[in-house]
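Board notes, transcribed. Complex of a protein with zinc ion.
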Amino acid sequence: MSRLGLGEHAKKVAHCPWHHDEHPSFSVFEGDDGFWHYKCFVCDTQGGDEIAFLVKHLGISRREAIKLYLEMAGFPPSRPPKSCEYPQSLASRKFPPSRRSPESPESPECLGYPMSNGQGLDGEVEKELQRLAASNACTERSTAKKRLWKLLRDLRAVDERIGPKLTNRELMPAFDEWHRLSQPFLDPAKTRDGYLAKFFAGLEKVRVPTGDGDTIKKALEGVWKLAPSELPMIPGCENAPESWRRIAALHRELSRLCGNGIYFLSYRDAAKAYDGLSHQSAYTITFALARLGVIKIVRIGDVRPNGRASEFRYLLSETENRVEEDAGFEL
Ligand SMILES: [Zn+2]
């Protein structure tokens, strides 16, 4: 909770972090199951455990919450040792038997995280590669070079993140998917093998994954130029401080530059969106924006200023935002 900027609420008797709470209604306590639980006598009498807390606070799915929880607990990200052993300390401390059992639909193994199926790529990463292939597929003629390059950068970003290099066998389905979807827009004079060669050759050339310094710099310059009226409106939070809206604008910009896909951003860079912002504040604001539905935290990075960047997806569409602004005018 401290890492979510909610340290002051992590007590037996506290004010609820989710609403105005004159008399402390919120409580954090250790349950019989060995997990920490929360409860609020006003808004959530049933309460829940640490996972449920993340679900409620960030508005994410249970699946995402488990993933995030493991990451916040410092569990080694993604690809796993080939053996199907959970480190004993974590297995016994963090997961009661029901969650560890392979039969349980909520066990981390069944979520493809961080266990491997023993046959290479876990389902989660495989799906991500397919998604990247689809989002970078050509949708018009004469874009193959650009789109393919973007796909390669995205793949390199995944590569970088999961540690051990993606193997050719893991990369092939991504190429196949990209080629299949792009086909109608590809140059008929060029063969699949030709594109395949470009694919692997390009992977060799791509050095810096999506979210590199140049992209961030470009996005920041874009954001600094924006007038306050051009900043995104935060849904349901019309009076949001400019610092929030500048960070939201930075996300919007990065999302645009990355073809509406997933992008990286460190809290140190996020802080640059608004003059005088510390990276800690940027971190807190980022989680607030996630809660408010502006962005989705795809993968949480390191909070330290030089730590690994987090991955995000921008959720507000241009049109939604305009509706929001119009509504503001009517009021
Ligand atoms: Zn409450």
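The CA atoms of residues 30 and 42 lie 20 Å apart. The pocket of zinc ion is lined by residues 16, 18-19, 25-26, 40, 42-44 (CB under 6 Å).
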